[in-house]
Amino acid sequence: MTFKETLVKTFQFNKATSTAGRAKRSEFWYTTAICVVMSAIIDALSYVLTEKIWGNEDIDFIFTLLSAYFLIVNISCMCRRMHDIRKSNTLPVCILVFASVAFLAPLLSKFTSPEIASYTGIILNTISAILLVYTLYLCTKDSK
Predict the structure, then answer these.
(1) Would you call 129 exposed, middle or buried from its count of C-beta atoms within 10 A (0-12, 13-18, 19+)?
(2) Which residues, given as ranges, of the chain have pLDDT below 50?
(3) Which pLDDT does position 101 carry in this prediction?
(4) Residue 125, exposed/middle/buried by CB under 10 A (0-12, 13-18, 19+)?
């Protein structure tokens, strides 16, 4: 798949968020590159608009939703890539679950001590990172 085809597919909601089918290496890496660049642009715009121009954090929610879209697109493509190399989709799902729980770990400080919430977040982020590195390694393998 070419970069242009991947770019078009990334912005088509039905195709981009589908986990059915297969994704070749080129589609996966192009999708990952597009998602990383778009997330960086969204984060930069969010920072500039909320901190420098408006000073209002309400708009930040919209930018969070846009970033979440590109995360979902990337995870969907990773699931299709796992299918292409005949591996289970549980790795991308586990990455998403661990990262989501780690993101919500600071909320634990309301129920437990802040140290426990901090250590929980660190442990879950570490597990997510290890799973991500292993999954990215698998994504470099040839199709089967």
Answers:
(1) middle
(2) none
(3) 80
(4) middle
